[in-house]
């Protein structure tokens, strides 16, 4: 299991759990970042913060700190390709 902040650009993933402070968690849930939601890393700011995601037909920017609290399961681009490995820091 990886954290959202560890994934490379273009990676697709499914949200498994959100483990941040209650007000932030509530806001993420309201924005559609729910367990089971599929998302894609679209881009990062030049210094790596924030991270732009594509999910549920819209784009969402998250602080890198918040992204590190979201546990995800990496998905493959197609059924024949292996899942993308998390980036190593």
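Q: What amino acid sequence fits the structure above?
A:
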């Amino acid at each position: 299991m990886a954290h959202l902040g560890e994934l490379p650009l273009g990676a697709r993933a499914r949200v498994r759990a959100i483990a941040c402070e209650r007000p932030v968690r509530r806001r993420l849930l309201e924005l559609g970042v729910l367990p089971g939601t599929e998302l894609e890393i679209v881009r990062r700011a030049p210094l790596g913060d924030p991270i732009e995601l594509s999910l549920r037909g819209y784009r969402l920017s998250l602080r890198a700190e918040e992204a590190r609290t979201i546990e995800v399961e990496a998905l493959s681009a197609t059924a024949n390709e292996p899942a993308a490995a998390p980036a190593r820091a």
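Q: And what stands out in the fold?
A: Confidence is low (pLDDT under 50) at residues 78-83.
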